[in-house]
Amino acid sequence: xxxxxxxxxxxxxxxxxxxxxxxxxxxxxxxxxxxxxxxxxxxxxxxxxxxxxxxxxxxxxxxxxxxxxxxxxxxxxxxxxxxxxxxxxxxxxxxxxxxxxxxxxxxxxxxxxxxxxxxxxxxxxxxxxxxxxxxxxxxxxxxxxxxxxxxxxxxxxxxxxxxxxxxxxxxxxxxxxxxxxxxxxxxxxxxxxxxxxxxxxxxxxxxxxxxxxxxxxxxxxxxxxxxxxxxxxxxxxxxxxxxxxxxxxxxxxxxxxxxxxxxxxxxxxxxxxxxxxxxxxxxxxxxxxxxxxxx
Length: 295
Description:
The protein has 295 residues and is an alpha/beta fold. It has helices spanning 6-11, 29-39, 90-100, 108-124, 127-134, 156-168, 170-188, 218-228, 260-268, 280-293, and strands spanning 16-20, 42-46, 54-55, 58-59, 66-70, 83-87, 194-195, 210-214, 269-273.
């Protein structure tokens, strides 16, 4: 996010800025925090994709007045659909608590169902199984669907315990993702694409929830996705369009500025998995498919 226009946005009425850390690769959140503070803009540090990433000694999600974390599928600490809110002000915490406590607690049956899905997650992440699941359109595997109609409930003691357990192995899982990102960097070097993130991932602040590649245009990304399917590694486009183009977002935007960078990202971004179920032959097969494409 470019902090330059913040003063102008504030004059036009902007009060809140949501700053996402895409794919677990942090930007200059400290600079953005300072800029928002000087402009009187409330900063929400969106760490949904970056639990465990850091900027300096501060974890992503600790900047600004509020931080958002996700336990959704495909995230660093997967808990199949739950979230966590971190607030830096007692009055905000009290207000959030007042809204949270009256919520209905999720039923025991739904908690059991989600628990079974979590136990099956390692199997479902296997490239061969995932490829078969992705072929079933009703599952919407790899799709990013904006649907705010989901029920808002309290997790309850059992699920809260499971979510806490998901955090226990976070550093280990993130370490695997970082090493796998390094493997992707090594295998895809020389291709006419832009691989996102620090070139030496080990020791960096990024966690690489997925490995991002920017292709020259939408057509080349579509061709890459087609070639990856038989290779056994499921690449996805992640976002079908820029957030600014969602009709549901329009009432909350300040101004109507063009967003060419966001639209280019939505059109050309392809992501590859970094979780621990990827085998050496999966890396090699996917890399060979992409190298053949540009040969």
